[in-house]
């Protein structure tokens, strides 16, 4: 009887320790949106979180016409974060789109507030906040980094940019961008004289980059080869991956970048 009583006390202690995280996850997690004022967002916890450790964060902006419920179930996004101990946050754009056209975007303010709202519920690692997006969401991720990049460890942008003539008040120390040469939705922005490095000129100018190191082809999956250029800069590092395909999220790309940024051996998935 005494042994049973001891086990019950231990069980109750575990419930008290983990209940806040468990309860909040049940009420607001996955496709069940979290509300913040008149707006909302989605989250996806990693598979192996212990309920206490500080979580790296991937803030991902969805493409045009989508919402965050798609992102938290997307195998090329949440399929990688959940295996790497990363908390995925997917804000919902108003009218399923983003306000990235000009500085001081209302969506930058909203997304920053989302991070703080999540931080009230879960311990987040402020040194590992990564911002990502696809298509219009990629342009919004650029805008977020341009307006609020000092608090961002890295920008992971996929098939969408801002004008390269923008002047950014802030910038992450690490920029990673991937784009398809045959993209007919958010066209690959070739520069003067056929300059294929033009898609990241804004960040190269902002961070004070020198000559590119053309590191060449690499693959996360055998059916897609990407061509990589990197710049070591006064204010950080810029990476550009180019592939021959169109408008899509390359298999394994997000996971590969997260592995490298977190000091792990890159793997798929």
From TrEMBL:
Keyword set includes Disulfide bond: no
Keywords: Carbohydrate metabolism, Hydrolase, Polysaccharide degradation, Secreted, Signal, Xylan degradation
Subcellular location: Secreted
GO biological process: xylan catabolic process
GO molecular function: feruloyl esterase activity
Assigned GO CC terms: extracellular region
InterPro entries attached to this UniProt entry: AB_hydrolase_fold, FaeB/C/D
Signal peptide: 1-25
PANTHER family listed in its UniProt record: FERULOYL ESTERASE C, PTHR38050
Function text: Involved in degradation of plant cell walls. Hydrolyzes the feruloyl-arabinose ester bond in arabinoxylans, and the feruloyl-galactose ester bond in pectin. Active against paranitrophenyl-acetate, methyl ferulate and wheat arabinoxylan.
Family named by the database record: Belongs to the faeC family.
Protein name as catalogued: Polyhydroxybutyrate depolymerase
